[in-house]
């Protein structure tokens, strides 16, 4: 379900708290995926959640000034999430004394819009990877995504899919072997 | 590199991220509630903060400045302004070129008064330093006290030598040269042997006054203002008129009683100084109706003449007839003596009888603060010639009036 600004305003008139909650439920996973994509290797779970909350805070504060276009809010929230994640990333790197090397891949991400060819290759590779993850089937695909994309522990994954941590670990190992062989068949090395 | 990074540590495009978020939602309800409560709390905090700053503030408190502050401010400002102006003027005056920082003795004023209070000699040299724009070095050497004393005495020994120096203004070096020439040649010629002499070198207008009030030498240079001159002429005419009333005292022309003459021995030292010889002086008794005694005579005389003046040759001692009149011996040829309580005057010393010329006022010159000289023409009734008589007038502080100091004939 997509929410437009017009719909959200209509809900805001009735009950602002409920409207905010509904919007949050709609896009929290999307925002979380964007934020953790950027902060996966430098921030803790709390920092990620803090950044996600800041994204929604910025959205709610700036929503009144948003123009009435009756368009989906997903793109708007996605831009906010991406920028917030970058700010958090820079702030955390500054606090950790890290500097971004010009050879770092993150720098390429910042300047990705300037390299269309490289961007296209990455997109194609990611689509293939995600497709092969899908082909693993449940619950292996969920285990791989949550373990390697969301940085969840096996205990957390097991709790989410009602399995033990050991079972999750075993299935994860098997799933990775299968995924590697599948990617090798199509000529993608990881 | 670990296997985890092999999968998703690479850059993932937005489209893939969106697909992952849709296909594999990760947040549980508990996590959603925690994050949303975090959002709500921040939102409420911001609302509170905004509401705290949303209060309107209007109007300002009016500050009433006390009036006395204005007065003090004006006074302080005026003080600063006038102080600045005054300082600037002072600096501009002091910063004029040609004025040396070291003070030079530009005014030399030496005055000596004898114990008899009569001789007053003053040598004044003044330079108008304020008008000096020439950087030539000014040198003024004052005669030391002792040397100056000698020079003054030299002047005193020349009772009838007048040295009037009237140097015109705006005459710089020539004025100093004139001053030196006149003083040296006319009055203190002997002081040429005394070193150092008075050396005055001036590059500015010089006004020099040499005054000897002892023997009629009243020398001054000053700008005579018309009013003051007229007043002095009136004073001079008054004094001259008084002097004409007592002139017969000094001229020894008082009437004597016929047949009352006596002879007095006058002992004189020979010109060589090694002996004494006598000569007889004839005195006649003054008509007692005119002057009865010496005291009356002196009183009348000093009513006109200066009280500080002592005429040692005019008034003699008192003698008595112990033996014969020839036994009376005097050391000077006194004009008047007292014999047996009667006033006698020296016979055979009468002067020419003078009569002032009518319709002719006295001329005042050599005016200084305390003295001036007046001259008036008289006619000698003996031969009809015109005689110019000079009257030295000084301010007699004892009598608090102008008095006649000396009378001399030209």
TrEMBL record, chain A:
Q: Which residues form a coiled coil?
A: none
InterPro entries on file: RNA_pol_sigma-70-like (IPR039425), RNA_pol_sigma-70_dom (IPR014284), RNA_pol_sigma70_r2 (IPR007627), RNA_pol_sigma_r2 (IPR013325), RNA_pol_sigma_r3/r4-like (IPR013324), WH-like_DNA-bd_sf (IPR036388)
Keywords annotated in UniProt: DNA-binding, Sigma factor, Transcription, Transcription regulation
Q: Where is the RNA polymerase sigma-70 region domain?
A: 24-91
The reply on keyword DNA-binding is yes
Record GO biological process: DNA-templated transcription initiation
Highest taxon in the source lineage = Bacteria
Entries under SUPFAM superfamilies matching the protein: Sigma2 domain of RNA polymerase sigma factors, Sigma3 and sigma4 domains of RNA polymerase sigma factors
Note whether Ligase occurs among the keywords: no
Gene Ontology MF terms in the entry: DNA binding; sigma factor activity
Q: Which Gene3D superfamilies would you find in this protein's record?
A: 1.10.1740.10, Winged helix-like DNA-binding domain superfamily/Winged helix DNA-binding domain
One Pfam family per UniProt: Sigma70_r2
What family is reported?
Answer: Belongs to the sigma-70 factor family. ECF subfamily.
Q: What is this protein called?
A: RNA polymerase sigma-70 factor, ECF subfamily
TrEMBL record, chain B:
Can you name this protein? Uncharacterized protein
Q: Record the organism.
A: Ruminococcus flavefaciens
């Amino acid at each position: 379900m997509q929410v437009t600004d017009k719909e959200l305003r209509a809900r805001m008139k009735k009950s602002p708290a409920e409207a905010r909650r509904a919007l949050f439920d709609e896009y929290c996973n999307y925002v979380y995926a964007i934020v953790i994509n950027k902060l996966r290797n430098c921030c803790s779970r709390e920092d990620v959640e803090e950044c996600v909350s800041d994204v929604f805070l910025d959205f709610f504060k700036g929503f009144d000034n948003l123009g009435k276009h009756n368009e989906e809010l997903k793109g708007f929230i996605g831009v906010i999430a991406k920028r917030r994640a970058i700010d958090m990333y820079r702030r955390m790197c500054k606090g950790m004394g890290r500097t971004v090397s010009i050879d770092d891949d993150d720098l390429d991400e910042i300047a990705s819009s300037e390299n269309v060819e490289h961007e296209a290759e990455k997109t194609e590779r990611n689509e293939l990877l995600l497709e092969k993850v899908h082909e693993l089937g449940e619950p292996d695909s969920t285990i791989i995504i949550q373990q390697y994309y969301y940085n969840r522990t096996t205990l957390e994954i097991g709790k989410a899919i009602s399995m033990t941590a050991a079972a999750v670990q075993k299935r994860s190992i098997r799933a990775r072997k299968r995924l590697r062989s599948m990617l090798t068949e199509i000529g993608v090395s990881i | 590199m670990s296997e985890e990074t092999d999968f998703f540590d690479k850059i993932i495009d937005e489209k893939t991220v969106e697909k992952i978020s849709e296909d594999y939602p990760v947040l549980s309800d508990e996590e959603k509630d925690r994050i949303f409560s975090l959002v709500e709390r921040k939102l409420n905090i911001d609302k509170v903060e905004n509401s705290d700053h949303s209060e309107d503030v209007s109007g300002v408190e009016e500050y009433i400045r006390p009036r006395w502050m204005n007065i003090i401010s004006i006074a302080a400002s005026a003080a600063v302004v006038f102080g600045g102006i005054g300082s600037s003027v002072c600096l501009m005056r002091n910063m004029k070129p040609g004025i040396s920082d070291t003070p030079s003795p530009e005014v030399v004023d030496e005055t000596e008064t004898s114990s008899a209070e009569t001789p007053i000699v003053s040598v004044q040299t003044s330079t108008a330093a304020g008008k000096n724009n020439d950087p030539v070095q000014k040198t003024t050497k004052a005669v030391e006290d002792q040397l100056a004393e000698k020079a003054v005495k030299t002047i005193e020994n020349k009772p009838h030598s007048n040295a009037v120096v009237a140097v015109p203004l705006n005459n710089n070096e020539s004025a100093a040269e004139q001053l030196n020439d006149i003083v040296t040649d006319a009055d203190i010629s002997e002081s040429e042997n005394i070193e150092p002499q008075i050396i005055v070198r001036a590059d500015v207008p010089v006004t020099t006054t040499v005054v000897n009030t002892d023997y009629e030498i009243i020398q001054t240079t000053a700008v005579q203002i018309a009013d003051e001159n007229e007043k002095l002429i009136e004073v001079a005419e008054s004094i001259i008129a008084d002097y004409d009333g007592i002139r017969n005292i000094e001229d020894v022309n008082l009437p004597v009683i016929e047949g009352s003459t006596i002879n007095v021995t006058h002992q004189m030292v020979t010109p060589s100084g090694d002996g004494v010889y006598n000569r007889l002086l004839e005195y006649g008794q003054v008509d007692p109706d005119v002057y009865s005694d010496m005291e009356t005579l002196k009183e009348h005389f000093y009513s006109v003449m200066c009280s500080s003046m002592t005429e040692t040759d005019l008034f003699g001692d008192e003698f008595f007839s112990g033996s014969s009149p020839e036994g009376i011996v005097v050391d000077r040829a006194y004009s008047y003596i007292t014999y047996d309580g009667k006033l006698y005057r020296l016979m055979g010393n009468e002067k020419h009888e003078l009569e002032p010329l009518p319709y002719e006022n006295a001329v005042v010159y050599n005016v200084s603060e305390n003295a001036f000289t007046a001259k008036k023409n008289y006619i000698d009734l003996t031969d009809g010639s015109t005689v110019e008589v000079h009257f030295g007038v000084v301010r007699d502080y004892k009598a608090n009036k102008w008095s006649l100091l000396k009378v001399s004939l030209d």
